[in-house]
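Appendix B. Raw example, untouched.
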Amino acid sequence: MSSTRIVACCFIAVLISGCAHWQRRQTTHFVMHYEKGSPAERDIDELAVKIEGFHKDATETYDFIPDRKISYYFHNRLPLSFFGSQCWGYIWMDRIHVAYSEKGKDESPHELRHYVLHKINRSAPDFFDEGSAGIGIKIQDKTFHQWVKETAPAKIDLEACIKNPDRFGKPGDFVAYSFCTFLFSKLGNKKYGQFYRRVTKKNYSPVLEELTGMPFGSLEAEWKKLVQAQHTGRKKSEANKSMNHDKQ
């Protein structure tokens, strides 16, 4: 990393953590930061209950308990910016940041899941990292199985997507969310947690076969059958147009 970028990163860290406008609320497992007069301040009691519930689900699934309280920042703006990319949330210097404004509120467990996932297995493929963070979440009241049917190529090459999800753009994320949701429902939370702790780019197929008793190809076929059975009511062209306005 260049000296210029190091200085910039340090400046961002000081700016984020030291600003006087941040109000704080502590819960059992979090230090919540929010701006005075913001939607997060108004909803802080509800948010405290919600993220504690997310913490319970994530730590039980992955058998991981953080050794300190997690800093969680609710920003009164959308989108957020992270090294030039626009997003709804990110993790930086062990702190979780999400957008929470009148324009849009990230009330999902997505970033907290990333926080836990990164702690337990940094060798997991990006496909399973991103997919595991999106398990069970909906966009525009649609499941990711439905989004895959509406937006992904008719013949999905799942292994190619696992190896290089960025190649497929946003539909590649939807494939990851959908396939991981499928695996989670098939394995249950404890076995899924075991899978994630062990998975790497080279072993995902044999590990899944060991835990499910099914070859990877059979799992893929069952998942694709599930996706094709979804009722969506929209053509791919319409869904792709709408998709551009959703979470990044």
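End of appendix B.
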